[in-house]
C-alpha cells in the first residue's frame, strides 16, 4: 500500500492507517524481557481474491505470526494455507506478543492449493528463522489504551489515532505499512512535544498538527492490511526515542523491532490493525 501523509502546511508525502480498539494489559510486576533465538516457522497463502504480491506478504506474515506465537508460548493459529486477506489483520496483531528483531527468509518452491471439485490455484510458501524478543516491563504500569476512528477504511479517507494513558508518558506512533515497512509518524517536526499527561485524551493528528493521515492501497491492490503501532514510554526512557527513530524514515520490520526492543521494557504498546479498500 502506498503510504501517503498529506501535509496541511507543506507538500504531500505518502502514508496510510486504520484500527481495532485495543487496551494494553498492565503488568503485575516489573521484569525485563528476553530474546528467544532461532525460532523456525512456515507460512503459506493461496492466491484467492488478492494479488500475487499481497498473497506473498500474507504468507510471510503468517510465518512471522507462528514464530512469535511459538516464542511467546501461546497457541499457534490452526490455519496453514491462508486464502482470506482479512486474516492478515489478525497476523499483524500477533506482533504485539513479541518482536522479531532478526530474521532469515527462505521462499520455498511454489505449490498448488485445491478445494474439492475446484480448479487448483497458485500457493506461496515461505520459511523463516527468527530471533524474537519477548518484552517485560521494568517500570510501573502506564495504563495505555488506544484506538482508531474506524476499523475499515476506503482509500482517500483520513485516520485519527485516539490515545489515553493512566500516568504521564512519552508517546510514539508508528505505521506498519502493507509492504511490511515501518515509519514513525509522531513525534515529528510539526509536533515535537510528545509528553502526554496521565488521565488525559490525545488525538493524532489533532488541530493544528500540520499533517493529515490519508489512507491508500498499494498500487494495483484492491485492499491492504496495515497497522498503527502505539507506544507509551516512561518519561525517563523517552529521551532515547529520538536517538533511535527519525520522523518519516522508512525501516524494515525487523530493523524497527530491533531498535524498539532497546526501550520496550520501559514501554507499553499496542497494535491497531486495519484494512484499506480501494473504492474503485
Structural overview:
It is a single chain. By secondary structure, the chain is α+β, with helices and mostly antiparallel strands. The protein folds into 2 domains: 5-30 and 137-277, Immunoglobulin-like (Sandwich); 34-134, no CATH class. It contains 4 helices and 19 strands. The strands form 4 sheets. Strands 9, 12, 13, 14, 17, 18 and 19 form a 7-stranded mixed β-sheet that branches. Helix 1 (52-72) runs parallel beside helix 2. The model is unreliable at 1-30 (pLDDT under 50).
What are the segments in which pLDDT stays under 50 over at least 5 consecutive residues? Answer: 1-30
- Output the CATH topology of the largest domain: Immunoglobulin-like
Q: What is the helix/strand order?
A: EEEHEHEEEEEEEEEEEEEHEHE
Count of alpha/pi helices = 4
Average pLDDT for all residues: 82
Number of domains: 2
Structural class: alpha+beta
**Secondary structure: helix percent:** 10-25%
Q: Would you identify the CATH architecture of the largest domain?
A: Sandwich
Q: Tell me the major beta sheet.
A: 7 strands, mixed
Task: Tell me what portion of residues adopts beta-strand conformation.
Answer: 35-45%
**How would you sum up the global shape?**
globular
Q: Tell how many strands the DSSP assignment holds.
A: 19
Rounded to an integer, what's the Rg over CA atoms?
Answer: 19 Å
CATH class descriptor of the largest domain: Mainly Beta
| CA-CA gap between termini | 15 Å
Amino acid at each position: 500500500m502506498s503510504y501517503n501523509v498529506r501535509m496541511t502546511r507543506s507538500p504531500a508525502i505518502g502514508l496510510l492507517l486504520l484500527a481495532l480498539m485495543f487496551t494494553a494489559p498492565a503488568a503485575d510486576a516489573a521484569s525485563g524481557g528476553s530474546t528467544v533465538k532461532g525460532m523456525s516457522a512456515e507460512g503459506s497463502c493461496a492466491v484467492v481474491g488478492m494479488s500475487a504480491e499481497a498473497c506473498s506478504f500474507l504468507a510471510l506474515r503468517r510465518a512471522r505470526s507462528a514464530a512469535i506465537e511459538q516464542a511467546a508460548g501461546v497457541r499457534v493459529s490452526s490455519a496453514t494455507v491462508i486464502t482470506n486477506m482479512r486474516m492478515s489483520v489478525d497476523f499483524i496483531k500477533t506482533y504485539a506478543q513479541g518482536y522479531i528483531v532478526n530474521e532469515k527468509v527462505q521462499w520455498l518452491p511454489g505449490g498448488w492449493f485445491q478445494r474439492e471439485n475446484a480448479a487448483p490455484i497458485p500457493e506461496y510458501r515461505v520459511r523463516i528463522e527468527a530471533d524474537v524478543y519477548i518484552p517485560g516491563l521494568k517500570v510501573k504500569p502506564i495504563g495505555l489504551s488506544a484506538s482508531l476512528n474506524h476499523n475499515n477504511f476506503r482509500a482517500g479517507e483520513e485516520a485519527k489515532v485516539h490515545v489515553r494513558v493512566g500516568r504521564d508518558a512519552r508517546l510514539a506512533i508508528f505505521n506498519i505499512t502493507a509492504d511490511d515497512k515501518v515509519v514513525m509518524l509522531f513525534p515529528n517536526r510539526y509536533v515535537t512535544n510528545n509528553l502526554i499527561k496521565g488521565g488525559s485524551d490525545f488525538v493524532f493528528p489533532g488541530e493544528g498538527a500540520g499533517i493529515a493521515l490519508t489512507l491508500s492501497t498499494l498500487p494495483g491492490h484492491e485492499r491492504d492490511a496495515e497497522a498503527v503501532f502505539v507506544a507509551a514510554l516512561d518519561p525517563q526512557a523517552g529521551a532515547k526515542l529520538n536517538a533511535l527513530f527519525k520522523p518519516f524514515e522508512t525501516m524494515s520490520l525487523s530493523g524497527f523491532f530491533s531498535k524498539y526492543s532497546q526501550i520496550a521494557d520501559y514501554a507499553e504498546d499496542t497494535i491497531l490493525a486495519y484494512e484499506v479498500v480501494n473504492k474503485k
